[in-house]
Amino acid sequence: MKSKEHLKEKGIILIVTSFNQIYNFLSFFLTNKTLANKKIYLTIFSDHIPEELIHLFQQYLNKFSNVEILDMRRNFLSSKFKVLNKFFYYFFFLKKIIKIKKKISISYILVSGRMQIPVLSIMHFFRFAEIYLIEDGAGEYVPYSNEEKKNFFFLFIFLNIIFKKNKSRLRVLQLAKSKKDYFRILGQPYLDDKFYINNREAYKKFLTDNFNESLLFKPKCIIIGTLPSKNRDLNIIKDYYLQTIYKIKREYNFKSEDIIFFPHPRTNNFQFSELRKSLSIHSIIHPISSIIVENYLFQKNLEVVLGSLSSALYYSKTIFDKDYVFYLENRDLLKKDKKDLNFMKTFENVGIKSFFCKGVSGEHK
Questions:
Q1: Most CB atoms closer than 10 Å: which of 40, 77, 177, 206?
Q2: Which CATH architecture describes the domain 212-363?
Q3: How does pLDDT run across 250-300, given as a tens digit for each residue?
């Protein structure tokens, strides 16, 4: 006689914040045929992901499996008392998790981002599920600063205990050339090589097979936008990108139709509209959709990639082997604290240089 657990519907908990993380997940699970007949619980913790982007996530994933949004955001909390807020949130969280546990057998948990208490609780509640850690972004390749080590010392110890306890269930979907390139959550020293799954080729093949025919443009240059901050004047940002486009055209003799500007996926509607008004005369402005920068990186006609210190820029060099990759740096746009300097050093170590440094443009010609 089959157990109740065996008779339950099979499911996957997917905790992501970007399309690139979704592509990393899909490329592995479709290649290994482990997605069939499993419902995806797209779990959202971040309050900073726009509703439009969450809808796009769900819409795209629905092509491959049945999807349900598991909204775990805290934006519904209204009490002025922090203790009450925490009580209401964890009551709400546990109620949802228990409901899923009663009717769904969770086979896999995929996690990207901060290891919050609710995320660790999900790992604990579904103790028979395999746990896959996926890259949150380029930060995975940046060593911790001394200040971060000091501030998060006890958190590191706690995570170390949790991960060691669940070692047999942990896997890493690796996009790095070597596991030694990871310095943060993915760089667990006690995990053997067998727990690191090299997903680079499957990831590239997924992008080529699924987007080659649907890409509308064949750019020679891509500019990757940063996320506009509420505390930063949008006019300064627009002017900064205009200066960048002028320099690109002057240095490389590109036309407006050769250049695509990609706004950050979490750019809100107002910010996107303002950027489009200013930049659309001088370049193509790509709409926010399931098509992201990484979808264009396999194109052979793409010559130059530049932009914010993002994973897309890092992948341009380390996965897609583009020759001319630059990061954007400007006093009005970047506040150079120790974290920024660590990022810059990491990017420079793989051959990504500052676009506005004197003399870099001549290499292309």
A1: 40
A2: 3-Layer(aba) Sandwich (3.40)
A3: 999 999 999 999 998 888 888 888 899 999 999 999 988 889 999 999 999
